[in-house]
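Support request, please re-run this one:
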Amino acid sequence: MNFSRMLCALALVGLAGPGLAQEVAIPNLWDPRARQERPDLSGLRTVRFLTEDDFPPLHFTGPDGAPTGFAVELARAACERLSIACTIQARRFDTLADALAEGRGDVIAAAMPIMTALRSRFSVTLPYFRFPGRFAARADKGQPVPDPRSLDGRSVAVVLGTAHEAYLRTFFTRAAVRGFPDLAAAQASLRRGEIDYVFGDGLGLALWIGGTDAAGCCGLIGGPYLESRFFGEGIGFVVRKEDENLRRAFDHALQRLWDEGKYAELYLRFFPVSPF
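Re-run finished. Output below.
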């Protein structure tokens, strides 16, 4: 879905010091014209969610040792909305797909990208989260909002060999691209004022900006960029193909959680600096 077709709820909060104070944008990934109907769930047994515990803020171990995070709490809220009993178990990420296929769980709530290989094996709800590309800049430099002309000759750091590099070289051809081995190195160069912008994964940049390593230096600017052929379709709840009724139920619940404000409440809890 193109971002121009997405609705955003905006909550005013200050970010990253003077000059780049921003709003927390809450993405609406649901088409209001396409209503998801609640299927009949009578006779449904307890639904077993599978997740992973080391990818904050989407899924991680909470202070009490139990799984939490945006994806996990969204799963709990969806179960409550559907009035069904659910459990949540954390496993190693690389074991989740096989565990679901072998019947050791019923739904995956983890950052498993929606790709052709996943769809060929499982059924997936509509995305409840996407990974936008974003620019970041220093808060004290007064850099212009990025566009193909404003970046003419300006230095932009990007991680080599990534979809973000491919996107940058395709649509911002006048930028002076500087390649880095990883996002942390690019962010450090921006903080030191050695380059004008970083372009990369919006979630990674948002976590850095909201953390101590950035030291309030920087903020997100321009975008978000959501072209699926570069940045994917996002993530949804994953179920076995034969559990299509369950997939439809969670699609219904997710849209209702957005309509009722619960999605926004959880989003603001886990994303004080929004990737969007």
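Residues 25-130+233-270 form a domain with the D-Maltodextrin-Binding Protein; domain 2 fold (CATH 3.40.190.10). The CA atoms of residues 16 and 221 lie 11 Å apart.
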